[in-house]
Amino acid sequence: MKASPAPSEVWTVDFGYDGKVRSAMVVSIPDKNCRLAISSVVQITTQYAGTPYEVTLPRVPWLREQSYCNAQTLQPVAWVEFQRKLGQFDLRVLKDLRSALSLWLGI
């Protein structure tokens, strides 16, 4: 991939475990000049536990079920592992997720 994925975009990502490809939202800023070709993402899930680290996502046609992001799943992903862009959320959703990340990370 030549361009870095942008914040609030949702991609399918090969996380390399159990042969499972999952959806994830990009939370890091784009930087084509970074030394490592990676972006930080938070996985999207349909499971909700009601913790302050979870963000309820708006219903969109490109996600089959009601979905959530859990800030506790923050991880770096190499750009080559991004497979397909599914869509992009409104920047208000990204703001809510970044607030949950700040809470989780204590920053």
Protein described:
It contains 1 helix and 7 strands; from the N terminus they run E-E-E-E-E-E-E-H. The protein has one helix spanning 91-105, and strands at residues 9-14, 21-26, 38-45, 54-56, 68-70, 75-78, 82-88. The radius of gyration is 13 Å and the shape is globular. It is of the alpha+beta class. Strands 1, 2, 3, 4, 5, 6 and 7 form a 7-stranded antiparallel beta sheet that branches. The termini are far apart. Strand 1 and strand 2 form a beta hairpin.
Strand content: 25-35%
Give me the Rg, rounded: 13 Å
Uncertain segments are: none
Could you tell me the mean pLDDT? Answer: 91
- What spatial form do the alpha-carbon principal axes imply? globular
Query: Helix and strand succession?
Result: EEEEEEEH
Overall number of strands: 7
Let me know the largest β-sheet.
7 strands, antiparallel
Figure out the total of helices.
1
Structural class: alpha+beta
Percent of residues in helices comes to 10-25%
Distance between the termini: 31 Å
Spell out the blueprint of helices and strands.
Blueprint: E1 9-14, E2 21-26, E3 38-45, E4 54-56, E5 68-70, E6 75-78, E7 82-88, H1 91-105
Antiparallel strand pairs: 1-2, 1-7, 2-3, 3-5, 3-6, 4-5
Q: Keywords for this structure?
A:
107 residues; 7 strands
